[in-house]
Amino acid sequence: MTFYPDKDGVLVRAEHFDLAATIECGQFFRYSKENGGFRIIAGKRKALISCEDDYVRFHNISADEFEGFWAEYFDLNRDYGAIIGDLAERDFVLREAAAFAPGIRIMNQDPWETLLCFIISANNRIPMIMKVVGNIAERFGEDNVLPGPEILAKAALDGLLACKAGFRAGYIINAAESVLSGNPILDADREISTDELRRRLMTIKGVGVKVADCVMLFGMGRREVFPVDVWIGRAVRRLYFNGADVPLAQIQAFARERFGEHAGYANQLLFHYARMNRII
User: Fold this and answer.
1) Of the residues 21, 84, 99, 215, which has the maximum number of CB atoms within 10 A of its CB?
2) Mean pLDDT of successive 10-residue segments in the chain (280 residues)?
3) Which residues are CB-contacts of 155 (< 8 A; sequence separation ≥ 6)?
4) CA distance 88 to 85
5) What span, in angstroms and rounded, lies between the C-alpha atoms of 185 and 197?
6) What does pTM read for this prediction?
7) φ, ψ for residue 203, nearest 5 deg
8) How far apart are CA 102 and CA 17, in angstroms?
């Protein structure tokens, strides 16, 4: 990655960085389209980001802020060429998926915001997830920033229901209470195994295997996990098992063995490839 500060912000050139595919692939929900680009909110930070020829522009962002936050947020310091090359060698399906969309990056999001958003994602469509998340930020946050657990732990259930959270409203309050009670799930370091971290996350109401894996992948840097929902399950079954109705546990075991430490990247490539080619 190279970047060039100028009077309008920062221009970034990075191999394997497709801005639209990265933002719209289902890992992130705090964005809106604006002037051909994306207005995004990450914690208390906001940015307008757009494409200019072979570059990505971070508008009105200083070089220090870009280096200190946004480069890491979009994982721009990681060698995705090496990751994609490794995955492409594993089988022809991933070769095709990687060639189709080599620019999807896994963003390094805030763990609490990731947990909140993916609790809301349960049995929900992306537009509605974004709507509910936005409603919560507007009602309980300041300046449209998502509130922390200390605020949502005290939130009235009726208030969250008014945000269209539905049955997830109680789960949100429980998650906030769990974090505040000393559950170290969002501060877990790499000394805690992925299996143990998943178990701890699943002590929160409304957090099953899929939500826990999404939180670990998108908010906690556990790139070895392979979240499986109905869509990625359908994609794997069709691409690798000739459409056979193999169980979830078999898909997860297959992903661990086939994709190894890069299973999270494989997950995003396969999902995008299958969705854009109407395989799912």
Assistant:
1) 215
2) 94 94 94 94 97 94 97 96 92 90 93 96 93 98 95 96 96 94 71 89 94 96 94 94 92 93 94 86
3) 140, 147, 172, 173, 176
4) 5
5) 7
6) 0.94
7) -75, -10
8) 8
